[in-house]
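Pilot study result, target chain (281 residues):
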Amino acid sequence: MKHILIDYENIQPKSFDNVEVDKCYVWLFLGINQQKSLPLELVENLLRFDNENVHIIKMQHAGKNALDFYLSFYLGKISEIEPSADVCILARDSGYDILVEHLNSAYDGMNIMRLENANQLTVAYESNIESASDIKKSQLVIEDSHHVLCDDVTSVAMDNKKSLAQSLEESVPKSVIHECYVLVFDSIVNRKVFLPSYKSNLLYSIKKYVPVTVLKRFNSTEQDYIFEQVFGKFIKAGLIRLDENGEKLSYKVDSQGILDLVTDQVLRSKAKEIDGLNNVI
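Predicted structure:
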């Protein structure tokens, strides 16, 4: 099932034209000041959903972060009842990101993301839609050899992996990967967004830093490849590091961290002229 949780105090979507209404729940959280009337266009769109699938939660009292607590409570309930659900939070409040990371880590198979624009809903859900056969094929390609039961299957999987990698390299221009890297870099370094502790959660988060227009011509597999390459660029630059177990992340994206990296590169280069030093920097 899919669930859309809307913080109506800071995002007021008027339509869900691109969202498939089947097997989709809408949770509309209304602050004290939003309860007297709703736009007709929004009401008409909500009527497209089954009555049982639309939930309107009204705040009983005004207060700082009151709606956030309500939404977090229901998000927790959804996670407990349906731990494999696809959940999208429509909110500009980055404070939700800490809870999103925790729930994605606590419930294996659960997909929760926060979006700041209702227009991103279709792309977000398309990236999560895979048939069971697609999932099995993907797993066959990426699993390590110690997960495969026989040498023949291992050989096929490795060949498929090489073939897929080569195909993706040909279908995704390097200029697109660089453009996405710059956009994500701007968000992580300049805008000081929330930084998840695990790679899977980071990959999940950085998708929202790239405009839909940049990715719309790529399928979900190609998009995953793009963000893996972007992640690799951060690793290569030393801005992000994995622990010895390849699980937890650490960051060097603050001013001091970047200065340390630049200093290290300068010392390694042993440049003898100003022009060479400028190139290194």
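One observation from the pilot: The first helix runs from residue 40 to 46. A full batch analysis is planned for the follow-on phase.
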